[in-house]
Design a protein that fits this description.
Blueprint: H1 2-10, H2 22-28, H3 49-74, E1 79-83, H4 90-93, E2 101-106, H5 108-120, E3 128-133, H6 141-146, E4 155-159, H7 168-180, E5 187-193, H8 205-214, H9 218-221, H10 230-235, E6 239-244, H11 246-253, E7 268-275
Parallel strand pairs: 1-2, 1-4, 2-3, 4-5
Antiparallel strand pairs: 5-7, 6-7
The chain binds S-adenosylmethionine.
Length: about 280
């Protein structure tokens, strides 16, 4: 779904992000082979709750995290870890500074699908790319260090669209692990929902529209446990943190979703953390 949103975003006249790999992932999977890939193919255009407003959200998120990742790598954190990398094609599309290594952690089946599609395109990464098959809800640091990750080197960590789906205990463990493996100069960005969607937001058209257009029940995917305050945990451990809403960036970039009644995005937060001391 995120890949389809990125494909559509790529071809918007006012695109915030470009991902020319995204459409190939969507076409390659049977379940999504007939989903729209261009703005002109979206029924209702920007009024479509899924491919319009939520799609714009994914486009904005992609751009903000592209900027974060490149800024952090250029500042010296050239070891990059994509947590729940999925179909993220940043290793192939960003203008990395020399000497970057991009570790992509996800489930083995997801990485195998991604590899098949990218091999078919003869895609060449623009940094060293190291896929790491691991379950992020259990112990995963051994798989990462076994793949060549160096805890003594500053790292750019990214968890885009991951923690919303993990149980709170897994989020706590993940934050502990990132903290333990991060030296001074490391940076982390991640997305959370502060709480399960409020009762009004459960009736938001994005959920019924998504189910109708794709068969996916988004609400069923979100973990419903009370969420841990990971930003506070990091702040207590010598990270500086900034908690932003997506709407902050809509205003900054002039495109993207704005708040609306019973908003399904109301509790979404993007957190940026930086470690200045070891
Ligand atoms: C919504 S996708 C986001 C993918 C990518 N970060 C992006 O924004 O394009 C969530 C990804 O997290 C991965 N994921 C979810 N739970 C996981 C787990 N326990 N271990 C490893 N990967 C997991 C999924 O396989 C999926 O690729």
């Amino acid at each position: 779904m995120v890949a389809a949103a990125r494909a559509i975003e790529t071809y918007r006249d006012d695109a915030l992000a470009q991902d020319r790999f995204a459409e190939h992932f969507v076409r390659a999977a049977r379940a999504s082979a007939r989903w729209p890939l261009r703005p002109g193919e979206v029924p209702g255009g920007d009024t479509n709750p899924l491919w319009g407003r939520l799609g714009r959200y994914f486009g904005l998120r992609t751009r903000v995290l592209d900027d974060f990742t490149l800024r952090s790598a250029r500042a010296g954190a050239r070891q990059v870890v994509l947590l729940g990398a999925g179909l993220d094609a940043r290793a192939f599309r960003l203008d990395w500074p020399p000497g970057c290594a991009v570790f992509e952690i996800d489930r083995a089946e997801v990485l195998a699908f991604k590899r098949k599609v990218l091999d078919g395109l003869r895609a060449t990464p623009r940094a060293a790319r190291i896929p790491v098959a691991a379950d992020l809800s259990t112990e995963w640091s051994g798989a990462l260090t076994g793949a060549g990750f160096d805890p003594a080197a500053p790292t750019t960590w990214l968890a885009e669209g991951l923690l919303l789906y993990l149980p709170h205990a897994a989020e706590r463990r993940l934050v502990d692990t990132v903290d333990r493996l991060s030296t001074a100069g490391s940076a982390l960005a991640y997305e959370v929902k502060l709480a399960a969607p409020p009762p009004g937001a459960r009736n938001h058209p994005v959920y019924s529209s998504t189910e109708r257009q794709t068969g996916v029940d988004l609400l069923a995917l979100f973990d419903r446990d009370p969420r841990p305050d990971s930003a506070a945990t990091l702040a207590a451990r010598a990270w500086s943190t900034a908690v932003r809403t997506p709407f902050d960036y809509t205003r900054r970039y002039g495109r993207g979703p704005l708040p609306e009644p019973d908003d399904a995005l109301a509790t979404n937060r993007w957190i940026f953390a930086a470690r200045t001391t070891s």
